[in-house]
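Deliverable D5.2: sample structural annotation.
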Amino acid sequence: MSQVSESKIRQIHDLLAPRTGNAHKPPREGGTTGALVAGLLSQNTTDHNRDLGYSRLWERFGSWEAVAKAPLGEIADAIRPAGMMNQRPPRILALLEAIFERTGTFSADFLLEIPHEEAFEWLIAREGIGEKTAAVFLLFYRGAPYFPVDTHIRRILIRLGFFPDGTTAMEVQRKMTAMCPPELMMPLHLNIIDLGKNVCRPRNPKCEICELKAACPSAL
């Protein structure tokens, strides 16, 4: 059974607040559509390879209109560093087609204007865009109340005793989205990821220097 509560969430936020504060995701070349394409490229690869694949795609085509008209093989070659060249190009084209059918353009800005619940449902209906990618987009590009959960966040919240072992990332995300105060979602998301990369690592966590040591039942 989940042991998460708003008071515990606020405690963890307060302890981690000095790390990065209210950092925000910088704009990506290619606009809101670019953010979604980058999300498609981010799964099962590193941030470096995602960014390299995205940069090569944009440098080669320079517009979403050009990408939409391109052969699958050319798109696959451009995004090669990100991997999954058989699956990703059709998903990119399907996303662009869906945006064009909705708006008559290749801009996903409409997702910033419709109710965020509707935007979330529209996004997760697209192949290759799951709940995490949708939550990241809506949190960072319109400040909507979603709490994306990656492997770092899942691991740390389980170690903190917020969730039992075996809880999936999506289960954690749905519960945190429901429980976390909206104004804490972005800084807490960023700070837990930073903690997971640098301190609360999968192996050999640096518990002795962790800000959460006193609040963590798993601390060594």
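Annotation notes: The mean pLDDT is 93. Residues 31-142 form a domain with the Endonuclease III; domain 1 fold (CATH 1.10.340.30).
The annotation will be released with the project's public dataset once the embargo ends.
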